[in-house]
Design a protein that fits this description.
about 375 residues, alpha+beta, 16 helices, about 60% helix, about 5% strand
Length: about 375
């Protein structure tokens, strides 16, 4: 710049400084505007996060009430209590719609606890999935390198402004950023996978009395009925069983169940009716009636050898490890039409679940590993 006069040099320098000052002021305004935008966004996001926290607490309380049910063994309660918090929240979400239909009362939580117990394998599988997802997310955290400010940002107002706004963005917490990224929509939980909870239509005590009166009138006016009083004893055991309360569907099927049981060869005489009533109070009408209708109950007529040859199909070995190894417990139950009996027993490698065959004649112990796959089945 030796060919420029001193005055021209000063003029150029002053012009450059004026441009820098204007650029700096413009960048400062942009940064301040962005600061206000982020502050407002954070306030809005925090409100949504507070709503989500309250919703999660409702789900946690639902799970807590289920774990407080006497229908769960202490060992199973301990196992469920050790679930990841996220799993407990999702379990509560899974139960929420069913709870809303059945009504929030101790009896409802008892019935839901029974349904949770029957699906413990799926609950534990979901817990493993959630823990693994958290571990994967944690391993990825911090791998994104923060942008470093170049030395150019120290002399360039534009670069400096960009660096300042980048610092503002990095100051937003991951939780708030997640809400902002989904355009401030509230998170919608879907509940745990592969779980199904049924809203049982339980009958209140007042309605049970009305049903009992209607059934008494129907039975007493039936001229072909030989055991009206005895059947009412059984009906009373069904309707007023607080341990295994009846659903409306079960109450509506009582007379049809009686007919099918009699067709299976069981009379409702005084002795049988008393035994049936006691058994119902102990195990529930659904289990007892199914056995009576299938002829597998202790009161069912004993089959002769000839009867067994005619009625019993050739039995295949359901315990063949090669056929079931690698299946999940749920897949085995569906494939072989088995049902769970009792709570799973935790082991070092997973847990053992006792199951029974569809006709209640065979009992197996299913050994499930930590990957929730079957290792073996034994009688």
């Amino acid at each position: 710049m030796a060919f420029l006069s001193r005055g021209m040099q000063i003029g150029i320098a002053e012009g450059f400084m004026d441009q820098q000052a204007e650029s700096r002021e413009r960048q400062e305004r942009l940064t301040e505007d962005r600061r206000k935008e982020i502050k407002a966004a954070q306030i809005r996001a925090r409100k949504i996060l507070d709503e989500q926290d309250r919703d999660d607490q409702i789900n946690l309380n639902i799970t807590k009430n289920v774990l407080g049910s006497s229908k769960l063994s202490p060992e199973l309660v301990k196992q469920l209590d050790g679930l990841d918090t996220e799993t407990k929240i999702e379990l509560g979400q899974s139960l929420r719609s069913t709870l809303r239909v059945m009504g929030e009362k101790p009896l409802t939580y008892d019935r839901l606890a029974i349904q949770v117990k029957k699906q413990i394998g799926q609950v534990l599988a979901n817990d493993e999935r959630i823990r693994q997802a958290k571990a994967d997310k944690a391993s990825q955290a911090g791998t994104t390198e923060e942008q470093t400010e170049s030395i150019f940002s120290a002399i360039s107002p534009t670069a400096r402004g960009r660096a300042d706004r980048a610092r503002l963005e990095r100051g937003v917490s991951p939780e708030v950023r997640e809400v902002m990224d989904r355009d401030f929509a509230q998170r919608r939980r879907k509940g745990l996978e592969d779980l199904r909870f049924e809203a049982e239509d339980l009958i209140g005590s007042g309605e049970r009395a009305k049903i009992e009166n209607n059934l008494r009138e129907t039975i007493s006016t039936d001229k072909d009925e030989d055991f009206p009083t005895q059947k009412m004893t059984v009906i009373g055991a069904i309707l007023f069983d607080d341990k295994n309360p009846p659903t409306r569907g079960a109450a509506n099927r009582i007379l049809q169940d009686f007919k099918e049981i009699e067709e299976a060869g069981v009379e409702f005489n005084s002795e049988n009716s008393k035994k049936i009533a006691v058994d119902i109070r102990e195990r529930g009408s659904e289990v007892v009636f199914n056995e009576l209708k299938k002829g597998t109950h202790e009161l069912s007529p004993k089959k002769t050898k000839d009867d067994k040859k005619e009625t019993e199909p050739s039995k295949k070995d359901d315990t063949d490890d090669n056929k079931v190894k690698g299946l999940t417990l749920n897949e085995l139950l569906q494939k072989e039409e088995l049902t769970r009996r009792g709570d799973p027993k935790p082991t070092e490698d997973g847990f053992i679940q006792t199951v029974v065959s569809k006709d209640k004649t065979q009992v197996f112990d299913v050994y499930v590993n930590k990957e929730f796959k079957i290792d073996k089945v034994s009688k």
